Predict the structure of Transposon-derived Buster3 transposase-like protein.
Amino acid sequence: MSKMSKKRKWDDDYVRYWFTCTTEVDGTQRPQCVLCNSIFSNADLRPSKLSDHFNRQHGGVGGHDLNSLKHMPAPSDRSETLKAFGVASHEDALLQASYQFAYLCAKEKNPHTIAEKLVKPCALEIAQIVLGPDAQKKLQQVPLSDDVIHSRIDEMSQDILQQVLEDIQASPLKVGIQLAETTDMGDCSQLMAFVRYIKEREIIEEFLFCEPLQLTMKGKDVFNLFRDFFLKHKIAFDVCGSVCT
């Protein structure tokens, strides 16, 4: 069995060749040219390779202040490094596309697997026919697996909840809460809560939470679940002006 090749590490001094560092999920670091966005393998993460590309492809880019570039912070996180150079990150666009599809998938209540099994293959075929192989190659990089879509939806859900909680605490007037009991497809009781509050002089109504009623649907069980949610998110009860069912 052949030994695994040693992974090379990024050095901040490599910015002199106008390269930044991209870090993959497994921690592998790869150099990317900020001038042409070309991404190289981890094996190319060495001065001789980077210098060769810099000189051959970009002619040394005479006239640029490489000394100031050398002292510019170059964190290993790709998006932050590119922002420091004032260069838009291709990875940011891929990430945004992934979140946008996850949002539409949740909005239309489609199964998460539809992205990987149907939408992406169709999009790749369309890109190949209409835009060509280069566009297809870029589109191929958009992460749309079942697990990715699931995690994206969870992240957006948590972000929206956090925004609503912040709005509740910032409301100039006490908020109104409406509770509703329902039953899901598994015949399990669920408690839904909706909130109404003031934001920028407008009345806002938002969904707050949906939690299963583990015991009974008695008033004390509903209250305990409602109380636990507020305690979990460190919201004082005195922000509530009214609660109705």
